[in-house]
């Protein structure tokens, strides 16, 4: 057997992007020096969980982790997908952390993916499951992903620190994506949203919604924010509340913002958490998240700052056609994504600032990735 | 006026390069090494003495800063919200400034 040529990388940065791109481009990787000098060295529980998830959805992949977890080897296999899979995401990061790479992987699987994920459904660090439903999934449709079979069901919610939520994600497969010319962000015609609460009174939601509406009312009458109060076993293990907003534009773009308020984790890993023991009052949360959404709208661009990475990734995975997109200010994660795309797929974007609207135009020729496992007939 | 146009054009093209450079780094012909070398040189002079043992954390901090300016083990997170920079959207001036991003704004443009 031929010797495998591993690409050597260092550090835990861009962990998900590296694994995702390694899988899609069938590049075996060795990642070393993962928090080697930390008091808690090595891979974090969520990173190991993500590796296990990769194992679960693919065939013939190889993962070897050293004793301290500071180095591992990953040889991608064939992404199989499949129905009725189950994965426990743990509680060190929310389900959103896993969804971001998983949806892209699912598109290029052999069989449509349907998987039940357990863990934290909403937290402040990753996009919430509500944002995935309202913004991320519609975004895929721009790239020719069919809407049948594309779904995310929230069966129960779980707030940090203890989680206890469950969702079911279904992703259809595609033969290839279609390149986009997506530069018109349009004008915001309506704002929708969902608030949620777990193990607290529904009054928290009403206060958040009232405060958020107060900000939007002067700009737009068409604002509806729904409540999703969970109680009993559907409310998970921890108290929490939060809100996810999405602005829909006349040209079919979705701009989102979300947040969650809950007690901080105490496992010593997330020590730098900004949340204190005092929780932010719901009225303040409402004002804050409405302001974040308006700031995202002000930036311009066809997606919000959180979705830039996914947008660039999808453009780079298109057939060898030119894709053109417009975003607001480049986000740090968006920039990292651009670099990783260049390293793994060899796709370089042409990045031009549009000074009149203070946005950024990006152009690229897709890498021509085809889902070889899907029959074309 | 006319003389301004060429200036604007030049700044635009320069910005274009800088944005590409910002993301992908400078082309190898003029790399960022001189800057780093200076920093290293400064370090060397100080640590010439009896600082034989260096705390591992400190030594690494410096070398890591050189690495594209980003942290080596930085957190993997797509969400980027700067809560510190939120404007007061209740102010009329502030919310009127984005009116044209909404259907309630001026359509003539």
UniProtKB/TrEMBL annotation, chain A:
Residues 184-298 form the RNA 3'-terminal phosphate cyclase insert domain. The keyword Nucleus applies. This is RNA 3'-terminal phosphate cyclase-like protein. One of its GO terms (cellular component) is nucleolus. Residues 9-351 form the RNA 3'-terminal phosphate cyclase domain. The keyword Transport does not apply. GO terms for molecular function: RNA endonuclease activity. PROSITE patterns: RTC. Belongs to the RNA 3'-terminal cyclase family. Type 2 subfamily. The lineage of its organism: Eukaryota, Viridiplantae, Streptophyta, Embryophyta, Tracheophyta. InterPro entries: RNA3'-term_phos_cycl_insert (IPR013791), RNA3'_phos_cyclase_dom (IPR023797), RNA3'_phos_cyclase_dom_sf (IPR037136), RNA3'_term_phos_cyc (IPR000228), RNA3'_term_phos_cyc_type_2 (IPR016443), RNA3'_term_phos_cycl-like_CS (IPR020719), RNA3'P_cycl/enolpyr_Trfase_a/b (IPR013792), RPTC_insert (IPR036553). It comes from the Eukaryota. Keywords: Nucleus, Ribosome biogenesis. It is found in: Nucleus, Nucleolus. GO terms for biological process: endonucleolytic cleavage of tricistronic rRNA transcript (SSU-rRNA, 5.8S rRNA, LSU-rRNA).
């Amino acid at each position: 057997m031929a010797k495998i040529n591993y690409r050597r990388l260092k550090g835990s940065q861009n962990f998900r992007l590296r694994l995702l791109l390694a899988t899609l481009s069938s590049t075996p990787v060795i990642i070393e020096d993962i928090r080697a000098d930390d008091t808690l060295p090595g891979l974090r529980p969520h990173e190991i969980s993500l590796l296990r998830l990769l194992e679960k959805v693919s065939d013939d992949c190889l993962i070897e982790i050293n004793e301290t977890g500071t180095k591992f080897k990953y040889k991608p296999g064939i992404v199989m997908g499949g129905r009725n899979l189950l994965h426990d995401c743990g509680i060190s990061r929310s389900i959103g952390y896993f969804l971001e790479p998983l949806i892209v992987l699912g598109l290029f699987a052999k069989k449509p993916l349907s998987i039940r994920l357990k863990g934290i459904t909403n937290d402040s660090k990753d996009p919430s499951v509500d944002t995935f439903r309202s913004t991320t999934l519609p975004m895929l449709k721009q790239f020719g992903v069919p809407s049948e079979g594309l779904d995310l069901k929230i069966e129960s919610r779980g707030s940090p620190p203890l989680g206890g939520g469950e969702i079911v994600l279904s992703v259809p497969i595609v033969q290839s994506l279609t390149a986009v010319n997506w530069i018109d962000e349009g004008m915001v015609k309506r704002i929708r949203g969902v608030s949620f609460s777990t193990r607290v009174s529904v009054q928290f939601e009403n206060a958040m919604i009232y405060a958020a509406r107060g900000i939007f009312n002067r700009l737009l009458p068409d604002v509806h924010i729904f409540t999703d109060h969970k109680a009993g076993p559907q409310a998970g293990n921890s108290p929490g509340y939060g809100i996810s907003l999405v602005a829909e534009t006349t040209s079919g773009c979705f701009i989102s913002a979300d947040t969650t308020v809950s007690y901080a984790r105490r496992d010593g890993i997330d020590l730098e958490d900004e949340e204190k023991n005092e929780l932010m009052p719901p009225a303040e949360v409402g004002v804050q998240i409405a302001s974040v959404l308006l700031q995202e709208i002000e930036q311009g661009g066809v997606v919000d700052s959180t979705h830039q990475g996914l947008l660039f990734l999808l453009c780079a995975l298109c057939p060898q056609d030119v894709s053109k997109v417009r975003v607001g200010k480049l986000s740090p994660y968006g920039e990292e994504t651009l670099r990783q795309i260049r390293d793994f797929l060899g796709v370089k974007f042409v990045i031009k600032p549009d000074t009149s609207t203070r946005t950024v135009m990006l152009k690229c020729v897709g890498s021509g990735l085809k889902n070889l496992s899907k029959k074309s007939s | 006026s006319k003389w301004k146009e060429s200036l604007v054009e030049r700044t635009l093209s320069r910005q274009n390069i800088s944005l590409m450079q910002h993301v992908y780094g400078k082309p190898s012909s003029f790399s960022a090494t001189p800057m780093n070398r200076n920093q290293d040189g400064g370090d060397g002079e100080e640590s010439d003495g009896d600082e034989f043992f260096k705390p591992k954390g400190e030594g690494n901090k410096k070398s890591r800063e050189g690495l594209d300016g980003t942290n080596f083990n930085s957190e993997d997170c797509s969400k980027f919200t700067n809560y510190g920079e939120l404007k007061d959207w209740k102010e009329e001036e502030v919310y009127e400034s984005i009116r044209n991003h909404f259907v309630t704004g001026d359509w003539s443009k």
